[in-house]
TrEMBL record:
Residues 1-131 form the DMAP1-binding domain. Pfam families: AMP-binding, DMAP_binding. Residues 214-241 have a biased composition (Polar residues). Residues 60-166, 179-243 are annotated as: Disordered. Residues 179-193 have a biased composition (Low complexity). PANTHER family: DISCO-INTERACTING PROTEIN 2 DIP2 -RELATED, DISCO-INTERACTING PROTEIN 2 HOMOLOG C. This is Disco interacting C. It comes from Hucho hucho. Belongs to the DIP2 family. SMART domains: DMAP_binding (SM01137).
Length: 1402
C-alpha cells in the first residue's frame, strides 16, 4: 500500500531511500552455504580432539569431487560462525633477513648490468587499464531511452514501448543479481566492502537508470528461467545447491523463507521510478581524468606463464591421535603437573650468557597462578561490585626478559576464567603503533592491566608518580602479580576447572598492513587441540626440554614455550609456518633419519611474480630457493585458494593463499563480525563452483603452495604482497636483494623497509633504509644505484623511490623492528627527512594518462542566433562606454599628457601632485604642478643641448622609484623623445641585474640614458665592467645637474597616434617584450582608470609599486597628472627596512584608495603578523580604506589576499576592500575593481577539468577543487570575449578559452629589433573565425572564462565576472593535458613549511 501511488521525482530523501532500499533488497540477499553454527557440546567434551563435539565433518574423499558420496568423520572445526581474514603483523619485520636470493646472484646481476652499460629501463608500450572488465551485459543497464545523453532528459524520441523497456530492465536487474550471487553467497573473501555484490549492483541500476512512468508496474513473476539469459562474470562460479536462481521470482524468498509474490517486483519498479536520475553534462563539458579508463597500462604479455596443472586436492593432516590420559583442558593439565610433579622444572629463564637466572617449577606455577586468580577476582573492587568478572578481558604487560611472571599471569587468567590480552610494554607515550594497541584494549573493554613489579617501576610516570594514560588507551588499573603483593587464597577456595569449551581462552593482537591492530580470539577448545597437535607433531614427551628464543607473548613462542612446555630434539631443525589467525599452519616433523633430505625447490622469480610455479636452475640469477615447512597439522585440512576474488582452489602449479580447516585455529577478530566472516568463514570452491567442505576454512595470510608429498612451501605473506603492473612481488624478496648488495657496508641489516604506495592507480615500490653514519654521500648514492640495478635485474620491476635516513630515525616496533605502516605514513606526509633520496618514477610509472583527444569546439557550421551559439550565451562582456559617460573631466579636451601638465601648471600651479616618503615615514620630496612642469622643461633642454636628440629618439630612464623618474618622463615628452623606464641594477647584485638593463637599452634602441649621479657612477664601476661591456653604453646624462634655462619651445606631436612611450617587461618565462603605447592610448588609459576609481584633485592615493612597466607605471607616473589627485609614493624597497611603512602612511594620510603588489602584501603579512596589537596601539587605522588593489598580470593569489584581509581585520580593514586587477602585454589594464560595483566573487572549479581546458564548477571543499577569484571589474571602454586559441571561434559562457580584448588603450604592437610582423598581426590584429568577424581584437595569451553572475552592476545590468586561470606561455602541456606552474608550486609549497620561503624567494 505504501507504493500505491508513485511519489513525485525528488520527493524522497537520501536517508529514506537508503532505508527503503535496504528493506526491499534484504529479501534478496542470499545466505552463505553451511552458515549454520556448529553444535559443539559442552557436556560431552571428550579428552580426545577428534571427539570434541557432536557435529560431523563432511568432505569428499578426494577433497573436491562433489559427485562422490560424502565421507562422515569426526569434526575438526569448532562451533564458530564468525571469522575473518587479515594479514601478518608488520611487527615481524624485526626478523633477521636470510637472503633467499643469493648474494652471488645479486653480484652477477650487477655485473651483467654493468656490461650493458646502463640500467634496464622498461620501454614504454601501448598500455591499457589494469582493471579487469567483465562482460558489459553484467554491468551496463540497457538504455531504455534514446535521450540518455541529454541533460536531465526523462523522455526522448525512439523510446521503446512500456513493456519492452520494463522487460529489458527487469531482465537486466535479474542478471545483475544472479550474476553476482557467487561473490555475495559462497565467497567470503569478496573485495566489495559493505553489503553483497547483488545489493551494490542493484543500487547501481537504480542510480544510473531511468524508466518511463508506467501506469501499472510490470510483473516479472510470469517470466520463466528459460526466458532470461544469465551471463555470469568470467571467473565467478557458484554452487548450484546453495544458490537460488533469482531469475525466476517463484524461487525468491524473503528473510523468513517465505516465497515472494509479484508485489516485490512492483515495489522495486516504484523505487526505481522515485530515484532522480543524476544529470549527465554534455560531452564537451564533461571530462574525468582520475578514472582507470584514462590511464594506459601495459598490456599483459601473451607469452607470460600461466598455470597449467590440474586443480589441487585439499591436503589432510594425519589423524589426531587418541591419548587416554590427556587432560581435558589446559588448566587441568596445570593442576595435574602442579600436584603430581611440583618440583619438576617448568620454565628456566636464561641470561645473555646462557646461565640460568630463575627456575619456575610446576608446583610454583600452580600455586602462584591460583593466587593471581583469587586476587583478581576477589581483591579488585568490592564484593558487591567486583572490577572483573569471569569472561572479562585483562591486559598482560610484561617485558621480554621475564617469561616466568608472564606465565604465572597467563595461567592465573585461565584459572579465573578471564581472557588475557598480551601486549608489549609501552616505553613512551608516543610509541609507534601504541595508539592502535590502545584502540584494541578499548574495544575489548579492558580495565585492568597485569604487570610485574620491575615493569611497573619502569613505566613512564608523571610528576606525581602516577602512570599517565597513554594516547588512545582506556583508563587502566595496573595490577602487580608478584606473590609478595598478593593475598593468600583461603584453603577452601579452588578455581573452577572445566573441560575445554568454546569460551574464549585468550586474545592475541595482530598488526595489519595499514597499521590497525586487531584481536584474534582463540577458544579454549582450540587452545587444547593446538597443544595436542603440536605435541603429536613434534613428538613431545615428559621431561624433554624446549629452548625458546622467540617472543613468548605471541605466535610460536607462546604456543611452544608457554602452552606445551615440552621440547624439540636439539639435533633437529623443524621449520614451521604460522599466523595469528590459523595458529600453526604446518610443521616439519622431527626425524632420526639423517638421510632423508628436506623438501627443496628452486623457483623462477618471474614465474612467481605471475603467480605460477616454474622450476628453474640455480645458475640463473632470478631464482628463489625455498625449503618446505612440513605438512599440515594433525586433524587439519589444508588447501590453497586464489588470493583475490572468489576463494577458488588453485591449480597444482599456482601460488595462492593457504587456508586451514581445523579446531586449532583462531575464531574471530574481536568485535568485528564483518571482517571476521571474510577470514574465518571461507568456503573454498572447486572448478564447478561447489564448496569442497561444509565447514569453513580460515585464511592464514601466507602465500605458497603444496608440493609433492603434501609438503607445504611458503613463498611470502599477504601483508608483504605488492602488485605492480599486474605482477606480484614480495617485500621480503626485495629486502633480501637490497641487503645482498655489499651487505652491512652502508645500511643496517634489519633496518630496511619496503612498501608500496599508489600512484596513478597502480602500486609503486618504495625502499627506505637507515644509513650508517660513516657512509659518505657519494658512497651511498653508488650503493643506491646498484640496489636499483639489482632489483631491476632480478625482479624486473622498477623502484619508485629509494631513501636513506639517518640511523635510529625510523619508527620501531616494541621488539625493535621497523614499524612499516608508521614508516609509510611518514613517507606520505613528507616527514621522513631523508639524507639521501633517489627518485626513479620513469622506471616504474608506465601507465601515464592517455593523450587527451580534444573535442571539437563551436565551429563556423554552428547555428548562431543573436548572442547564442550552440545553446550557450557567447562569453563576452564590456565595461561602461566612455563616449556616453558625462563627467567634469577637463583633461579630456587635451590629446596629449604633456598638454595636461602644462594646463595644470597654469590653472593650479601649487597643487601637490606627488609626495615621496622615506623609510621613516616622513616626506622625502614632493612635486606640485608647476614644479613638475619647470623641472620637465629643464630636462627637455638638457636632452636637446647635451644629448643632441631629435624628435622620436628613444631615451632609457634608469631611476630608482621616486620623483626623478616622473620628471624625466615628462621631460622626454616635452622634448619629443620616447621614454623607456628601466629598473636600475641592484648594487649588491650587479652581475645578474645589469645584463637585463643592457638588454633593454639595446633592444629599445635608446639613443641615450638618463639617470642619477649615483647610478651613473655604478654603471661605470669595475663590477659593471665585469658583467657587461660598458664601452657600448649610449651617452649617459646625469639629471642631478640640470641646466638653468628652459627650452625655447615645447614639442607638440602632430598626430595623437604617434608613439608616446615604450613599455618593456620580462615575463616569467624569461622573454623580453616591449609594447608601443600611443598618445591616444595613454590618454584613454588614464581616463578609464580615473572613471573606474573616481579619481579627482581632492583625492589622495597611496601607491606602493614598482613603477617600471604595466599598470604600476601608469598609476605611479601618469594618472596624477591626468586626474589631478595627489599620489603618495612609497618605494617597495623601503618596506624592507620598515614593513609597516605602507600601512602607517595609509592610516596617517587617511587614504581611501591604495595600490600595491603581491610582494608588498606578502611582506606585510609575514613581517607584521605578530605586530597587529602594537600597530593598533600606535593608532594604525585602516577603516577608511575603500579599495586596496593588487596590481598583477597573473591569476589572483586568493590565499594571500585572504590572509592579508584576515590579519588586518582587527585594524579596521574591510574584507571587501581587497581586490585584484589584471593586465597583460597587449593591454596593460583590462580589469580593475574600482570604487563601485559588486564585490569580487569567488568560484570553485574542478582542477582535473581545467587540465582538459574545461570549466566545471564544484562546491567549496570538494575533492580537487580550486578557488578562483574574480580579477576585478572590467574597465570602461574595454570589451572582452573568450575565444578558442586554436580555432579562434567564440566560446560560450563558463567555457575556458583565451581572453581577447578590444579597447582604446590597447597597445599598438610589439617593439622588436627584428619586427616580427606575423606575431604582431596575430596578437594585436586578430579576428574571430565566425560571428563578429569585423572587430579587431588583441590576444592576451591568458586562459580564462566569463561567468554571468546574479549580481548587478552600477548600471543595473547583470554583472559579468572574469576569472583568469593562467598564461598559455607558462602552461605545460603533457600528454594533451595542460598544467599551470602555480598549481604545481602550490602543491610543492604545501608539502613542508620551509619550502614556502625557498620557492617564493626564488
Amino acid at each position: 500500500s505504501q507504493f500505491s501511488s508513485p511519489p513525485l521525482a525528488g520527493d524522497i530523501t537520501q536517508k529514506g531511500y537508503e532505508k527503503k532500499r535496504s528493506k526491499l533488497i534484504g529479501a534478496f540477499l542470499p545466505k552463505a552455504p553451511g552458515k549454520g553454527k556448529y553444535h559443539s557440546s559442552n557436556q560431552n567434551t571428550n579428552r580426545v580432539c577428534c571427539t570434541v563435539g557432536n557435529s560431523v565433518f563432511s568432505l569428499s574423499p578426494q577433497g573436491m569431487d562433489p559427485s562422490v558420496p560424502h565421507e562422515r568423520r569426526t569434526p575438526v572445526t569448532p562451533g564458530s560462525s564468525s571469522r575473518y581474514h587479515r594479514r601478518r603483523s608488520s611487527g615481524s619485520r624485526d626478523e633477521r633477513y636470510r637472503s633467499d636470493v643469493h648474494t652471488e646472484a645479486v653480484q652477477a646481476a650487477l655485473a651483467k648490468q654493468k656490461e650493458r652499460g646502463k640500467m634496464a629501463v622498461p620501454m614504454p608500450s601501448k598500455r591499457r587499464s589494469l582493471v579487469v572488465q567483465s562482460s558489459m551485459d553484467a554491468y551496463t543497464p540497457p538504455d531504455t531511452s534514446s535521450g540518455s545523453e541529454e541533460e536531465g532528459s526523462m523522455q526522448g524520441e525512439g523510446t521503446p514501448t512500456s513493456s519492452q523497456g520494463s522487460i529489458n530492465m527487469e531482465n537486466w536487474i535479474s542478471r545483475a543479481i544472479h550474476g553476482s550471487t557467487t561473490s555475495s553467497t559462497t565467497s567470503s573473501s569478496s573485495t566489495q566492502s559493505g553489503g553483497s555484490g547483488a545489493a551494490s549492483r542493484l543500487a547501481d541500476v537504480m542510480g544510473q537508470t531511468h524508466l518511463e512512468n508506467h501506469s501499472t508496474p510490470p510483473d516479472v513473476t510470469s517470466y520463466t528461467t528459460d526466458s532470461i539469459q544469465v551471463e555470469r562474470p568470467q571467473g565467478s562460479t557458484t554452487a548450484s545447491k546453495a544458490t537460488p536462481k533469482y531469475g525466476n521470482a517463484e524461487l525468491m524468498e524473503t528473510g523468513d523463507g517465505v516465497p515472494v509474490g509479484g508485489r516485490v517486483s512492483a515495489k522495486i519498479q516504484q523505487l526505481v521510478n522515485t530515484l532522480k536520475r543524476p544529470k549527465r553534462p554534455p560531452l564537451r563539458e564533461f571530462f574525468v581524468d582520475d578514472f582507470e579508463e584514462l590511464l594506459e597500462v601495459q598490456q599483459p604479455d601473451p607469452n607470460q606463464p600461466k598455470a597449467e596443472g590440474a586443480q589441487m586436492l585439499a591436503m589432510r593432516g594425519e589423524q589426531l591421535g587418541v591419548v587416554t590420559n590427556w587432560p581435558p583442558s589446559l588448566e587441568a593439565a596445570l593442576q595435574r603437573w602442579g600436584t603430581i610433579s611440583p618440583k619438576a622444572p617448568c620454565l628456566t629463564t636464561m641470561d645473555t650468557n646462557g646461565k640460568p637466572l630463575y627456575i619456575l617449577t610446576y608446583g610454583k606455577l600452580w600455586v602462584r597462578s591460583m593466587k593471581v586468580a583469587y586476587n583478581i577476582l576477589h581483591k579488585l573492587g568490592s564484593k558487591q561490585e567486583p572490577m572483573v568478572r569471569p569472561g572479562d578481558r585483562v591486559a598482560l604487560v610484561f617485558p621480554n626478559n621475564d617469561p616466568a611472571a608472564f606465565m604465572v599471569a597467563f595461567y592465573g587468567c585461565l584459572l579465573a576464567e578471564l581472557v588475557p590480552v598480551p601486549i608489549e610494554v609501552p616505553l613512551t607515550r608516543k610509541d609507534a603503533g601504541s595508539q592502535q594497541i590502545g584502540f584494541l584494549l578499548g574495544s575489548c573493554g579492558v580495565t585492568v592491566a597485569l604487570t610485574s613489579d620491575a615493569c611497573h617501576k619502569g613505566l613512564p610516570k608523571s610528576t606525581t608518580g602516577e602512570i599517565p594514560q597513554f594516547k588512545g588507551w582506556p583508563k587502566l588499573l595496573w595490577f602487580v602479580t608478584e606473590s609478595k603483593h598478593l593475598s593468600k587464597p583461603p584453603r577452601d577456595w579452588f578455581p573452577h576447572i572445566k573441560d575445554a569449551n568454546n569460551d574464549t581462552a585468550y586474545i592475541e593482537y595482530k598488526t595489519c598492513k595499514d597499521g590497525s591492530v586487531l584481536g584474534v580470539t582463540v577458544m579454549r577448545i582450540a587452545l587444547l587441540t593446538h597443544c595436542q597437535a603440536l605435541t603429536q607433531s613434534c613428538g613431545y614427551t615428559e621431561a624433554e626440554t624446549i629452548v625458546n628464543v622467540l617472543d613468548f607473548k605471541k605466535d610460536v613462542g607462546l604456543w611452544h614455550g608457554i602452552l606445551t612446555s615440552k621440547g624439540l630434539k636439539p639435533e633437529v631443525i623443524c621449520p614451521c609456518a604460522s599466523s595469528p589467525e590459523a595458529l600453526t599452519v604446518a610443521i616439519r616433523r622431527p626425524t632420526d633419519d639423517s638421510n632423508q633430505p628436506p623438501g627443496r625447490g628452486v623457483l623462477s622469480m618471474q614465474g612467481l611474480s605471475h603467480g605460477v610455479i616454474r622450476v628453474d636452475s640455480e645458475e640463473k640469477l632470478s631464482v628463489l630457493t625455498l625449503q618446505d615447512v612440513g605438512t599440515a597439522m594433525p586433524g587439519a585440512l589444508m588447501c590453497v585458494v586464489k588470493p583475490d576474488g572468489v576463494p577458488q582452489l588453485c591449480k597444482t602449479d599456482e601460488i595462492g593463499e593457504l587456508c586451514v580447516c581445523s579446531v586449532a585455529t583462531g575464531t574471530s577478530y574481536y568485535g568485528l563480525s564483518g571482517m571476521t566472516k571474510n577470514t574465518f568463514e571461507v568456503f573454498p570452491m572447486n572448478s564447478v563452483g561447489a564448496p569442497i567442505s561444509e565447514y569453513p576454512f580460515t585464511r592464514t595470510g601466507l602465500l605458497g603452495f603444496v608440493g609433492p608429498g603434501g609438503l607445504c612451501f611458503i613463498a611470502g605473506k599477504m601483508d608483504g604482497l605488492m602488485v605492480v603492473g599486474g605482477r606480484r612481488h614480495n617485500a621480503d624478496d626485495i629486502v633480501a636483494t637490497a641487503l645482498a648488495v655489499e651487505p652491512m657496508k652502508f645500511v643496517y641489516r634489519g633496518r630496511i623497509a619496503v612498501f608500496s604506495i599508489t600512484v596513478l592507480h597502480d602500486e609503486r615500490i618504495v625502499v627506505v633504509a637507515e644509513q650508517r653514519p660513516d657512509s659518505t654521500e657519494e658512497d651511498s648514492f653508488q650503493w643506491m644505484s646498484r640496489v636499483l640495478q639489482a632489483i631491476d635485474g632480478i625482479h624486473q620491476v622498477g623502484v619508485y623511490c629509494l631513501a636513506l635516513v639517518p640511523s635510529n630515525t625510523l619508527p620501531k616496533t616494541p621488539l625493535g623492528g621497523i614499524h612499516l605502516s608508521e614508516t609509510k605514513q611518514l613517507f606520505l606526509e613528507g616527514s621522513l627527512h631523508p639524507c639521501n633520496v633517489l627518485m626513479c618514477p620513469h622506471t616504474c610509472v608506465t601507465n601515464l594518462p592517455k593523450p587527451r583527444q580534444k573535442q571539437p569546439e563551436i565551429g563556423p557550421a554552428s547555428v548562431m542566433v543573436g548572442n547564442l551559439v550552440s545553446g550557450k550565451r557567447i562569453a563576452q562582456a564590456s565595461g561602461r562606454d566612455l563616449g556616453q559617460m558625462e563627467d567634469n573631466d577637463q583633461a579630456r579636451k587635451f590629446l596629449f599628457l604633456s598638454e595636461v601638465l602644462q594646463w595644470r601648471a597654469q590653472t593650479t600651479p601649487d597643487h601637490v601632485l606627488y609626495t615621496l616618503l622615506n623609510s621613516r615615514g616622513t616626506i622625502a620630496s614632493s612635486l606640485s604642478c608647476v614644479q613638475l612642469h619647470k623641472r620637465a622643461e629643464k630636462i627637455a633642454t638638457m636632452l636637446a643641448e647635451r644629448g643632441h636628440l631629435q624628435d622620436g629618439d628613444h631615451v632609457a630612464l634608469v631611476y630608482p622609484p621616486g620623483i626623478d623618474l616622473i620628471a624625466a618622463f615628462y621631460g622626454c615628452l616635452y622634448a619629443g623623445c620616447v621614454p623607456i623606464t628601466v629598473r636600475p641594477p641592484h648594487p649588491q647584485n650587479i652581475a645578474t641585474t645589469l645584463p637585463t638593463v643592457k638588454m633593454i637599452v639595446e633592444v629599445s634602441r635608446s639613443a641615450c640614458m638618463m639617470t642619477t649621479a649615483v647610478i651613473c657612477k655604478l654603471l661605470r664601476s669595475k663590477e659593471a665592467s665585469a658583467a657587461v661591456d660598458v664601452r657600448t653604453w649610449p651617452p649617459v646624462l646625469d639629471t642631478d645637474d640640470l641646466p638653468k634655462k628652459k627650452p625655447p619651445l615645447l614639442y607638440k606631436p602632430s598626430n595623437p597616434d604617434t608613439l608616446a612611450y615604450l613599455d618593456f617587461s620580462v615575463s616569467t618565462t624569461g622573454m623580453l617584450a616591449g609594447v608601443k603605447m600611443s598618445h591616444t592610448a595613454t590618454s584613454a588609459f588614464c581616463r578609464s582608470i580615473k572613471l573606474q576609481c573616481e579619481l579627482y584633485p581632492s583625492r589622495e592615493v597611496a601607491i606602493c609599486l614598482d613603477p617600471y612597466c604595466g599598470l604600476g607605471f601608469v598609476i605611479w607616473c601618469l594618472c596624477s597628472v591626468y586626474s589631478g589627485h595627489q599620489s603618495i609614493l612609497i618605494p617597495p624597497s623601503e618596506l624592507e627596512v620598515n614593513p609597516a611603512l605602507w600601512l602607517l602612511a595609509v592610516s596617517q594620510y587617511k587614504v581611501r584608495d591604495t595600490f600595491c603588489s603581491y610582494s608588498v602584501m606578502e611582506l606585510c603579512t609575514k613581517g607584521l603578523g605578530l605586530q597587529t596589537e602594537s600597530l593598533k596601539s600606535r593608532g594604525l587605522d585602516l577603516s577608511r580604506v575603500r579599495t586596496c588593489v593588487v596590481v598583477a598580470e597573473e591569476r589572483p593569489r586568493i590565499a594571500l589576499t585572504q590572509s592579508f584581509s584576515k590579519l588586518f581585520k582587527d585594524l579596521g580593514l574591510h574584507p571587501r576592500a581587497v581586490s585584484t586587477s589584471f593586465g597583460c602585454r597587449v593591454n596593460l589594464a583590462i580589469c580593475l575593481q574600482g570604487t563601485s560595483g559588486p564585490d569580487p566573487t569567488t568560484v570553485y572549479v574542478d582542477m582535473r577539468a581545467l587540465r582538459h581546458d574545461r570549466v566545471r564548477l564544484v562546491e567549496r571543499g570538494s575533492p580537487h577543487s580550486l578557488p578562483l577569484m574574480e580579477s576585478g571589474k572590467i574597465l570602461p571602454g574595454v570589451r572582452i570575449i573568450i575565444a578558442n586559441p586554436e580555432t579562434k571561434g567564440p566560446l560560450g559562457d563558463s567555457h575556458l578559452g583565451e581572453i581577447w580584448v578590444c579597447s582604446g588603450h590597447n597597445a599598438s604592437g610589439y617593439f622588436t629589433v627584428y619586427g616580427d610582423e606575423a606575431l604582431q598581426s596575430d596578437h594585436f590584429n586578430s579576428r574571430l573565425s565566425f560571428g563578429d568577424t569585423q572587430t579587431i581584437w588583441a590576444r592576451t595569451g591568458y586562459l580564462g572564462f566569463l561567468r554571468r553572475t546574479e549580481l548587478t552592476d552600477a548600471s543595473g545590468e547583470r554583472h559579468d565576472a572574469l576569472y583568469v586561470v593562467g598564461a598559455l606561455d607558462e602552461a605545460m602541456e603533457l600528454r594533451g593535458m595542460r598544467y599551470h606552474p602555480i598549481d604545481i608550486e602550490t602543491s610543492v609549497i604545501r608539502t613542508h613549511k620551509n619550502l614556502k620561503i625557498i620557492v617564493q624567494e626564488e
